[in-house]
Write a structure and sequence with these properties.
155 residues, Nuclear Transport Factor 2, Chain: A, disordered N terminus
Length: 155
């Protein structure tokens, strides 16, 4: 029983702060949103970021105007470089989020997060999204999204 629990949770030490990453708790708490791991972030904050990103994506899919900076890239030899950033973002499947982590300090005015999206599962090419949010806003305002498509790191 204990061994099974340990396989579902891992402890990360970041400076003097310990963060527990629990895929089961994250998935259950995310109310149906598939998030495998949380790092340095509460579930409510992770949901707010993911909801804001999905809202911007839906706005662009409807062909409506939205105002945030959007960048996309990949290694030079990848065909993904031939796709415009807006097309890559609109087509991105945000259903398989492997990890959401807060990169910036909690006191940061414009907090920065990293979302790791694994549309084809672990061990396959993946998207890393760096999302910078705006001022503290109940709905969450996206200021910038930088997307990088590439190979997975060795696990």
């Amino acid at each position: 029983m204990i061994k099974a629990l340990l396989s579902f949770a891992s402890l990360h030490v970041l400076g003097s702060m310990a963060v527990v990453c629990s895929p089961v708790a994250a998935q259950e708490s995310a109310a149906g949103q598939e998030i495998e791991h949380l790092q340095n972030i509460e579930i409510a904050e992770a949901r707010r970021v993911l909801t804001a990103v999905r809202r911007e994506q839906a706005t662009l899919r409807r062909g409506e105007a939205t105002y945030f900076h959007l960048y996309s890239g990949a290694p030079a030899s990848y065909d993904q470089n031939k796709v415009a950033p807006i097309d890559a973002f609109v087509e991105l499947d945000l259903g398989r989020i492997w990890q959401i982590k807060r990169i910036s300090d909690k006191r940061e005015v414009f907090p920065v997060y990293e979302l790791t999206v694994t549309p084809n599962g672990l061990g396959q090419t993946m998207w890393k999204l760096t999302v910078q949010m705006g001022w503290a806003d109940p709905e969450g305002r996206v200021e910038r999204i930088t997307m990088f498509f590439g190979p997975p790191p060795p696990f």
